[in-house]
């Protein structure tokens, strides 16, 4: 009896052991333990997309390509929208507009090789716009890399000075780890970051541990530096605040306003950052830089202390304007920037603070003395009001551009096209038609630059200018991105006819049903205005490459694309077209407004970099040799 019981027990034990072993095998086929981490079996593309989901990246911009189809195939299931653009360069600029308008990251991707090279301009643009973007560069397969195979290029070298961080996936099992780190680096650096993925790493099955998100707090600046800055501001006779991109990015507009009100300090906005301080505020002095606010320039010229809040103080942004070299040479400069490498890089700085604009502004306000701003307070307030009023009166009456001594281009342009609007008349008409909460984009070019002094905003993330990389063709794609991110907000893009021609192929994509409606203004003066202005000043009106086709109508092109095209010639027509186009956006109608202008030209971009050439050896057409054919 005892033997029978023991045998039965032994058989049961063996059976249980076999069952346990089978269960363990099943479990280990799905997951296994390494320390405290749970490893899960999935494909590399699933790992990639799961990390995108972890970070809430819902939009991807590019042109579909075989090098990333394993991930695009599962985008719909993941809740990711792929926006199939007409050109990769536009796709990158659309992404820049989306992130700048929303504060949310998006992803840019293209086919390896020639698709990726199309992203060079937008990624460098985003870098100097401080836009955190995820740049995904599928790479030619490791198996053939280095053999000069199909669509092969060194993609890491291509972007090395255009991103704040870049990393290549070295093993399929590291896909999620690397992607997670690249996204975090983009956020921390407020710039694009690149992940390079060999295309033969897709469709591989891996055991992987999805990494945690480690989001760092923004730096608040050094204790001693904050105290020194607060002491300088407390004792200032004429403090001025220069509000930059960091104020918008860091959500510091309200904090900047409180600081300005405590000091009764005028606030100048950085070049192309008109939305960094409420335009209706009594202390708002307008933008510095090219074609900016003369009032702002006159006020900052008087400063004994300048608080440069959230700005890298780019040298182009403070070049002389309206005949004034206005940057205060003897003032104490407090520069606040998240990137320590940029502090003191372009200007002599008294106090440098490496920190977030919002956190630094809050601490400065707390540490100001009770009497801060009291020195000559009323006198300063009166001067701010008088200076602003004089400039606004002047700006509202400015109709035409001046000629430099010895040149007559603008005078003759007015005579030649007496029935056409000037750029300034057009900008005033546009202002009269813009809705209050509008987001606008601008472009590189003479007519857009003339408008720098006009638009004001009450909130941040409303003004998308090309930034200091200065790409032509920015205005159209960036406003598409803004509308994708803010579908219920009216948007208006602006571009000259030369710059618009660079990105106009996106008319073929934005007509699709899924794309949101926008308004796009094209200033039509039939010339590359900035270069023509240079030619009138330094090259004796020898116009080479400056003329555009007067027979082309962008309004008709819009109609042909199934969009709405409108041509306007008067201020009243312009204002009405702007208003109607914003109403039409609510109905899903995209409008391209072609504004016919005279050929007046504003201030040149680069007086600092141009001079009249001198003939020395001389050039003669007879010296041209006939080139033999390379075919023997």
The overall pLDDT average reads 92
Q: Regions with pLDDT < 50 over 5+ consecutive residues?
A: 1-7, 26-36
What summary fits the major beta sheet? 6 strands, parallel
Helical stretch tally: 24
The radius of gyration computed from the alpha-carbon positions, rounded to a whole number of angstroms, is 29 Å
- Roughly how many Å apart are the termini? 106 Å
β-sheet strand percentage: 15-25%
Counting DSSP E segments of at least 2 residues, the number of strands comes to 21
Which structural category fits the helices and strands?
alpha/beta
The largest sheet has its strands arranged as: 4-3-5-6-8-7
Overall geometry comes to globular
Please estimate the helix content.
25-40%
What does this structure look like?
By secondary structure, the chain is of the alpha/beta class. Strands 4-3-5-6-8-7 form a six-stranded parallel beta sheet. It has a six-stranded parallel beta sheet with strand order 12-11-10-13-14-15, sandwiched between helices. Strands 17-16-18-19-21-20 form a six-stranded parallel beta sheet, sandwiched between helices. The longest helix has 29 residues, at 2-30. 50% of the residues are buried. Mean pLDDT is 92; it is low at 1-7 and 26-36.
């Amino acid at each position: 009896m005892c033997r029978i019981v023991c045998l039965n027990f032994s058989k049961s034990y063996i059976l249980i052991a076999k069952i346990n072993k089978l269960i363990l095998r099943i479990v280990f086929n799905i997951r296994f333990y390494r320390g405290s981490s749970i490893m899960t079996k999935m494909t590399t593309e699933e790992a990639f997309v799961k990390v995108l989901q972890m970070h809430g990246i819902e939009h991807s911009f590019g042109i579909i390509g075989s090098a990333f189809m394993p991930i695009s195939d599962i985008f719909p299931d993941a809740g990711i929208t792929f926006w199939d653009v007409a050109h990769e360069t536009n796709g990158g600029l659309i992404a820049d507009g989306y992130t700048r308008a929303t504060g949310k990251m998006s992803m840019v991707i293209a086919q390896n090789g020639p698709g990726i090279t199309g992203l060079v301009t937008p990624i460098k643009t985003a870098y100097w716009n401080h836009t955190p973007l995820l740049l995904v560069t599928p790479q030619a397969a490791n198996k053939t890399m280095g053999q000069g195979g199909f669509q092969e290029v060194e993609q890491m070298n291509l972007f090395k000075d255009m991103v704040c961080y870049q990393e290549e996936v070295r093993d399929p099992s590291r896909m999620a780890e690397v992607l997670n780190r690249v996204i975090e680096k983009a956020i921390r650096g407020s710039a694009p970051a690149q992940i390079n993925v060999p295309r033969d790493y897709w469709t591989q099955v891996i055991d992987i541990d999805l990494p945690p998100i480690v989001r760092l707090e923004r730096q608040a600046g050094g204790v001693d530096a904050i105290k020194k800055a607060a002491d300088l501001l407390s004792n200032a006779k004429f403090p001025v605040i220069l509000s930059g991109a960091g104020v918008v990015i860091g959500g510091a507009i309200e904090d900047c306003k409180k600081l300005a009100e405590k000091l009764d300090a005028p606030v100048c906005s950085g070049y192309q950052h008109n939305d960094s301080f409420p335009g209706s505020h009594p202390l708002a002095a307008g933008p510095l830089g090219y074609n900016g606010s003369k009032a702002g320039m006159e006020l900052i010229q008087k400063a004994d202390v300048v608080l440069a809040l959230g700005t890298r103080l780019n040298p182009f942004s403070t070049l002389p304007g309206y005949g004034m070299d206005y940057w205060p040479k003897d003032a104490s400069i407090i520069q606040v920037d998240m990137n320590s490498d940029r502090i003191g890089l372009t200007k002599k700085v008294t106090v440098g603070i490496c920190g977030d604009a919002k956190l630094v502004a809050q601490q400065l306000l707390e540490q100001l003395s009770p009497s801060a701003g009291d020195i000559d307070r009323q006198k300063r307030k009166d001067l701010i009001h008088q200076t602003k009023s004089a400039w606004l009166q002047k700006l509202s009456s400015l109709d035409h551009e001046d000629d430099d001594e010895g040149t007559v281009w603008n005078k003759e342009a007015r005579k030649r096209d007496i029935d056409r609007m000037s750029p300034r008349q057009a900008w005033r008409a546009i202002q009269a038609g813009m809705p209050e909460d509008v987001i606008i984009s601008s472009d590189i070019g003479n007519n857009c630059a003339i408008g720098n002094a006009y638009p004001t905003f009450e909130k941040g993330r409303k003004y998308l200018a090309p930034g200091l990389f200065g790409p032509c063709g920015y205005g159209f794609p960036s406003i598409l991105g803004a509308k994708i991110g803010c579908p219920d907000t009216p948007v208006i893009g602006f571009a000259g006819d030369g710059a618009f021609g660079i990105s106009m192929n996106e008319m073929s994509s934005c007509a699709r049903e899924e794309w949101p409606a926008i308004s796009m203004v094209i200033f039509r003066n039939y010339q590359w205005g900035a270069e023509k202005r240079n030619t009138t000043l330094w090259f004796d009106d020898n116009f080479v490459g400056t003329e555009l086709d007067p027979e082309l109508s962008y309004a008709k092109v819009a109609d042909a694309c199934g969009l709405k095209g409108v041509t306007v010639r008067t201020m009243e027509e312009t204002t009405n077209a702007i208003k109607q186009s914003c109403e039409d956006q609510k109905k899903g109608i995209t409008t391209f407004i072609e504004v016919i202008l005279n050929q007046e030209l504003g201030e040149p971009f680069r007086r600092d970099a141009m001079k009249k050439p001198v003939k020395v050896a001389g050039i003669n057409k007879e010296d041209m040799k006939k080139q033999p054919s390379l075919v023997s």
